[in-house]
Design brief:
Blueprint (H helix, E strand, L loop, with lengths): L13 E3 L2 E3 L4 E5 L6 E6 L3 H18 L4 H17 L1 H12 L3 H21 L6 E3 L7 E8 L2 E5 L7 H4 L2 H7 L2 E5 L5 H13 L7 E3 L5 H10 L3 E7 L2 H11 L5 E5 L4 E5 L5 H13 L9 E7 H16 L19 H16 L3 E4 L14 E4 L16 E7 L2 H9 L6 E5 L3 H10 L4 E4 L18 E2 L12 E8 L4
Parallel strand pairs: 7-8, 7-10, 8-9, 10-11, 12-13, 12-17, 13-16, 15-16, 17-18
Antiparallel strand pairs: 1-2, 3-4, 5-6, 6-20, 11-19, 14-15
The structure holds succinic acid (SIN).
């Protein structure tokens, strides 16, 4: 059904201890653009998850002893293979996730870049020599891998979300057990197959497909063999995993929900702000944790921005991600569509105006019209809740203080954006925003070279950059005596 240059990339089993494992229990993976059945995937449970953890632990004993150059070579080869098979990976991804093919290709490139980045960083896991406090002693710090890492990732970036974690873990000398989303397992399985071809030893990376996420989460968090949980997903699930991880005092990385403000000040380049807002809001049909969730626009430029922005949104093309002209695909499922409708109804009931869209798309299914809401009051649920859909609510503010106050009035603190030219304002606002990442005069901030992560209830830890490896390393202090 899926037309691939290399059909052997279409895997439907779990991957445990270097072997593909089928199951008599399966679940169907469907294309959100047309409901087409794509594959039946193995539905594994607690037993297989435990087996995968043990395999990860066994593999860790030898993987941690490899040299940085050996680990880097596998990561580089894997990156090369992803590049070589980009079209097939993108086809699988668009078919099961719905995003436009160009975005799927972009996601493969983004993932490749994380692999190459951490392959290079593997060689820079330096320690320290600390000037001694006692002439008879010497102080050293070395860094060692954390151990087996369990990763759980969502459907919005079926490969990139694990590609932000796995190469960092492997580069550090850790091994991994991964549960991909049940909505989009096929991309991750194809990605795992490329790992096999890259020469990754059996057990170093294990993939468990399941419909029983809570049970697998419990195995991961409660296992004494797993030393770290790395999760990307919602804040409520992150809190649950944190609570469960307390029983074994695991290290955790949590990349959780966001509620990104996108502020347009009166000194902004309005055309640039419109382009930045389109890129940030409508990437992946609005289904990213860093999507602009609230557009806050200063009153003197409110009408100009709203008109230009609505015009640009009207030019977006909704459709099947496989069609070349598509810029906005379907939402992932019915629940996502229902949530968008509830939030729009709530905003309208509070007095928001529908400037564009506001309805399901004629294509049916889970397609929704790109929507612009103006004069949205701050009481609307949209100002507090993650929309995860192609809906742009525009709020009005008058002063810089008010913008900052509204922008920070959320428990989330992942990404935020603002457009301004005044250098004093750029510093003041950047410092005043309570977020892990600030885009100034840009709507796109994601890159492997910079630390990605949030504060407040948006998470713990950072992915990518020179800091990203630390999340997978333990620091050990060695105090050496007996020198004389
Ligand atoms: C996310 O939506 O969680 C991540 C998006 C990105 O890496 O840019």
């Amino acid at each position: 059904m899926l037309k691939l240059s290399d059909p052997t990339l279409l895997k439907t089993e779990s991957f445990i201890n270097g072997e593909w494992r089928s199951s008599s229990q399966t679940y169907a993976v469907k294309n959100p653009a047309n409901g087409q059945h794509l594959a039946d995937v193995a539905n594994h449970g607690v037993e297989e998850a435990q087996e995968a953890v043990e395999a990860g632990y066994d593999a860790y004993k030898s993987w941690k002893k490899t040299t940085a150059a050996e680990r880097a070579a596998v990561l580089m080869k894997w990156a090369d293979l992803m590049e070589q098979h980009r079209e097939d990976l993108a086809t699988i991804m668009t078919s099961e996730q719905g995003k436009p093919l160009a975005e799927a290709r972009g996601e493969i490139n983004y993932s490749v870049a994380f692999f190459r980045w951490f392959a290079e960083e593997a060689r820079r896991i330096y320690g320290d020599v600390i000037p001694t406090h006692n002439p008879a002693l010497r102080n050293l710090v070395i860094k060692q891998p954390v151990g087996v890492v369990a990763a759980i990732t969502p459907w919005n970036f079926p490969i990139a979300m694990v590609a932000k974690k796995l190469p960092a873990a492997l580069a550090a000398g850790c091994t991994m057990v991964w549960k991909p989303s049940e909505e989009t397992p096929l991309s991750g399985l194809a990605f795992a197959e490329l790992g096999v071809r890259a020469g990754l030893p059996g057990g170093a990376f294990n993939v468990i497909n399941t419909l029983d996420a809570p049970a697998i989460g419990k195995v991961f968090t409660e296992s004494e063999l797993v030393r770290k949980i790395s999760f990307t997903g919602s804040t409520p699930v992150g809190k649950l995993l944190l609570r469960q991880s307390a029983s074994t005092v695991k290290k955790v990385s949590m990349e959780l929900g966001g509620n990104a403000p996108f502020i347009v000040f009166d000194d902004a380049d309005i055309d640039a702000a419109v382009s930045g807002a389109i890129a940030s809001k409508f990437r992946n049909a609005g289904q990213t944790c860093v999507c602009a969730n609230r557009l806050l626009v200063q009153e003197s430029v409110y009408d100009e921005f709203s008109e230009k922005f609505s015009k640009a949104v009207a030019e977006l093309h909704v459709g099947d991600g496989m069609a070349a002209e598509t810029t906005v695909g379907p939402l992932i499922n019915q629940a996502a569509l229902d949530k968008v409708e509830v939030l729009i109804d709530d905003a309208v009931s509070h007095g928001a105006q529908v400037a564009l869209g506001g309805n399901r798309h004629d294509l049916g299914g889970t397609f929704y019209q790109p929507t612009v809401l103006t004069e949205v009051p701050f009481e609307a649920r949209l100002s507090r809740e993650e929309i995860f859909g192609p809906v742009a609510p525009i709020f009005r503010f008058s002063t810089e203080e008010e913008a900052l106050e509204q922008a920070n009035a959320t428990e989330y603190g992942l990404a935020c954006y603002f457009y301004a030219r005044d250098i004093g304002r750029i510093w003041r606002v950047s410092e005043g925003l309570e977020y892990g990442m600030v885009g100034v005069n840009t709507g796109m901030i994601s890159t492997p070279v910079a630390p990605f992560g949030g504060i407040k209830e948006s998470g713990l830890g950072r992915e990518g950059s020179k800091y990203g490896l630390d999340d997978y390393l333990e620091m050990k202090f060695m105090c050496i005596g007996g020198i004389d």
